[in-house]
Each structure stands twice: as C-alpha cells, then as structure tokens.
Amino acid sequence: MSITPIIPTVTLNNGVEIPQLGFGVFQVPDAETTAAVTIALAAGYRSIDTAAIYGNEAGVGRALADSGLAREELFVTSKVWNSDQGYDSTLRAFDATLGRLGLEALDLYLIHWPTPQRGLYLDTWRALEALYAEGRVRAIGVSNFEPAHLERLIAGSSVVPAVNQVELHPALQNRAVVAADTRYGIATEVWSPLAQGTVLDDPTVTGIAAAHGKTPAQVVLRWHLQQGRIVIPKSVTPRRIAENLDVFDFELAGDELASIDTLDRDGRTGPHPDEFNA
Ligand SMILES: NC(=O)C1=CN([C@@H]2O[C@H](COP(=O)(O)OP(=O)(O)OC[C@H]3O[C@@H](n4cnc5c(N)ncnc54)[C@H](OP(=O)(O)O)[C@@H]3O)[C@@H](O)[C@H]2O)C=CC1
Ligand SMILES: O=C(O)C(=O)[C@@H](O)[C@H](O)C(=O)CO
After folding, report:
1. Nearest ligand for residue 224 CA
2. Are 233 and 277 in contact (CB under 8 A)?
3. Which residues face 163 on adjacent strands?
4. Is the pTM of this model over 0.80?
5. CB proximity list for 94: less than 8 A, separation 6 or greater
C-alpha cells in the first residue's frame, strides 16, 4: 500500500504557506498536461507551477477541476509572459490566465523574466501589487531576477516579492541570487531542480544515492529541501512523478550536502536573465 507523503510548507513573507515540493509542467503539451497533473495530484502533489507561455494552463485547469480536491487544498502558480509586461497588459494577461485555469484567484503570480531591456518590470510589478491588494492573488513574486533587478524593484515599490523562482541545481548554485533573496526575506523557488536530468549521472550524486538506497533524482531533491528551497520538478513519467515525491523518509548528512555543493560549475541550462529578452 502506498502512503501519500505529507509535504512540508514554507511560510512566505506575507504568511502564506507554499508546499515545499510542487509539480512543474514546462514543455508538457496542453493535451498531455491534464493526465500528468492528474497523476501528480493522485500521488499527493498539491502545488502546480505553470505559465502563460507554456500553453497548458487550460490542461492544468481541467486536472484541477476533475480532481475533486477543494480549492484551498491546492496551490496554483502562473506567470506573466515577457510580451505582456506593462501595467494594463499584465492585468489583461492575468484575467486570461485565470480564465484558462478556470479559477477565481491564483495562489502565486510571478513576473516570468525581468527582460531589463524592456524597462517595464516596475510597471508590471505595480499591476501585480494591484491584483494582490484586490485579493485576486494570495502572493506575488518574480522569476529570474538577479540581485540588481531585485534591488531596483524593491526600491521602487511597496510590496517585497514573496518568491524569486530561479534556475538552481548542483551545476548552477546561483549563490549571489540566493544571498540577495535571503537578505530581502524572499523565498527562493528552484526551477530545473534536476538540471533537466543532466546532473543525475554525476558520480558524487550516484554514490550518495547508492549509499541511501535512493535514486539520484531523490538525492538532488533532498539536497535542495534540506537547504530550505522550494522545488518544482517536472516529469510526465508516472514512476518518476511518484519517485520525486518520495523524498521525505531519508536525510543527507552534512558531508554529503557539502560534496554536492562542490559540483557548482556555472552549468546554466537556460538563458542568463540579463540577456534573455524574448
Ligand atoms: N521560471 C522559469 O523561467 C522556469 C520555470 N520552470 C519551471 O520549473 C519546472 C521544472 O524545471 P524543468 O526545466 O522542467 O526541469 P527538471 O529539472 O524538473 O527536469 C525535468 C526533466 O528531468 C526528467 N526527470 C524528472 N524526474 C526524473 C527522475 N526522477 N529521474 C530521471 N529523470 C527525471 C524529466 O523527464 P520526463 O518528463 O520524461 O520524465 C524531464 O526531462 C518546470 O516544469 C517549470 O514549471 C522551468 C524552466 C524555467
Ligand atoms: O520554462 C520557462 O519557464 C522559461 O521561461 C524558459 O524555459 C523559456 O521559456 C525558454 O524557453 C528560454 O529559452
């Protein structure tokens, strides 16, 4: 008999609690998203990370509606895409996102990328602040914000982001961003926590996995969790969806965490936020 794990939560800077482990759906076609999210919810995930640009908010919404789970049991995140930045266009994008998801409110809404060349992330943030003030979203945050972007945002606004969702895994530990998040009281949420699978054959990781009778993916997720980070691994493979949740029955020792720390090598899988201007 499988037991549904209890997923710990992280308390955000406005008191809202977010599950520390959620389910990401980047690169999952809309038609396949309902099945993947349904499997994830049945396995015990309660937090789903999507974005307008993923084109699968409707698929997520169908799975949420069919799940039979009460709305307050779920934590749903989406993001405003770069081309929708700006005050009015962000408000319109948010309405469209809610419509596709079939929800009345979001749990977390993020600015997807700063795209600093546009010069619009402050206007975009003001729209998120308005949505937050109206109670249409329980927490607002950013994604892919470097320390300088955070500094400018916080200096020019009244709500400190609750979350900064950034690329982080053993090969790209993004220490300066984590330090800035901590300094400002922002929770770091990790995208590509498994580096899209590319760190799973590293001998340090496989050695620790063998010692614990766990998989490399479970070891990498545990490394994140024990450092307080929020993770949103993606999989469309039922066995892996369950595997990635089965990480609450073992603990890495301090020297094991430290040996994974040594794998940092600027191994970015995505674009640098200062350069990404799509
Ligand atoms: N804010 C942002 O800019 C970004 C946000 N994200 C968010 O973060 C989420 C996670 O990041 P993502 O880039 O998808 O990458 P992940 O690091 O979660 O890796 C996903 C890849 O790893 C494979 N995988 C998953 N679990 C296992 C396992 N247990 N063993 C072996 N392989 C495994 C998956 O394969 P398979 O599916 O075939 O099982 C898939 O190829 C996204 O889905 C999205 O929600 C991602 C990128 C950017
Ligand atoms: O997955 C995301 O959330 C992203 O923003 C990126 O992966 C982006 O869409 C991209 O494809 C960059 O090359």
Report:
1. 1
2. no
3. 187
4. yes
5. 80, 106, 109, 127, 131, 136, 137
pLDDT tens digits, one per residue of 18-45: 999 999 999 999 999 999 999 999 999 9
Which residue has a Cα nearest atom 10 of ligand 2?
270
Which residue's C-alpha comes closest to atom 31 of ligand 1? 197
> What's the CA-to-centroid distance between 130 and ligand 1, angstroms?
31
Residue 54 known to be catalytic = yes
What are φ and ψ of residue 191, in 5° steps?
-100, 155
**pLDDT recorded at residue 175:** 98
Q: Say how many Å lie between the CA of residue 24 and the centre of ligand 2.
A: 12
Taking CA atoms only, the protein residue closest to ligand 2 atom 7 is 270
Domains in the chain (CATH in brackets) are 17-196+228-236 (3.20.20.100)
Question: Which amino acid makes up residue 195?
Answer: A
Q: Is a pLDDT exceeding 60 seen at residue 1? A: no
Tell me how far the alpha carbon of residue 96 is from its chain's centroid: 21
Query: ipTM greater than 0.95, yes or no?
Result: yes
